Amino acid sequence: MRSIEIIREEHRVLRGVLDCFESVLDCASRDSGPNMEISGEVLGWFERFADGVHQNKEELGLFPRMIAAAPEISRAVLKELMWLHAEERCRLVALRVGFASARGTEAWERGRFLAAARAYVEFQRHHALLEDEVILPRACEVLDQAVDDEILRTYAQIELDALGPNPEAPHAFLVRLRERAKQIVPSLVPSSHEDLCAGCDGCRVSSPRACSRGF
Ligand SMILES: [Fe+2]
Ligand SMILES: [Fe+2]
Asked: What is the 61 CA–ligand 2 centroid distance (Å)?
């Protein structure tokens, strides 16, 4: 189902961004800290897309339809997921605060931002894995084609409201981020999560033109 594949594809892009961001964090020196320009751009994408659009698609599009279709098997699992979303938002606020103070001159402030960023990366990996392995297979079992179309309409409205009519595709952001990160991490290679791009997968959330494999 398209509505489920879209969430899966966005998780693949998210993992690619997390891998890339982690490589940038690994290059941080004790004196100068991480590259703040790239960190700021990634943080903005987390806020705008990963936390904003993506989680709203789950919370307003996918999860409510799962509960409506199979309340007895969906409610407990999704309650846990909503807790994870709330926790993610708290961590993201902490990351934004840490980012602001890491622009100061104190090394410990940069260290605090680094620690918060690494914790956020690990948390988001766990979150996406849980959804891919537990939630999405369950969604496949309980949703049907008519509901799929409804969810897709909700996704489209969320994207339009948050990003406007011609947003940058998530995969295009990842390709652009990796090119920039290569300037400070020359050894950076595409993560395994980028092997299959949105365009290759026929996914409407990304443009085939953004495909790093030339599709
Ligand atoms: Fe989620
Ligand atoms: Fe997700």
From this structure: 12
CA diameter of the chain: 56
**Distance from C-alpha of 170 to C-alpha of 205, rounded to nearest angstrom:** 7
CA of 108 to the centre of ligand 1 (A): 31
- Domains in the chain with CATH codes: 2-202 (1.20.120.520)
C-alpha of residue 11 to centroid of ligand 2, in Å: 6
Residue type at 96 in one-letter notation: R
Going by C-alpha positions, the residue among 147, 20, 15 that lies closest to residue 74 is 147
**Are 184 and 193 in contact, with CB atoms under 8 Å apart?**
no
Its pTM stands at 0.84
| 71-98: pLDDT as tens digits | 887 778 788 888 899 999 999 999 999 8
The per-residue DSSP string of 117-171 comes to HHHHHHHHHHHHHHIIIIIHHHHHHH--HHHHHHHHHHHHHHHHHHH-SSPPPHH
CA–CA dist 170, 172 (Å, integer): 5
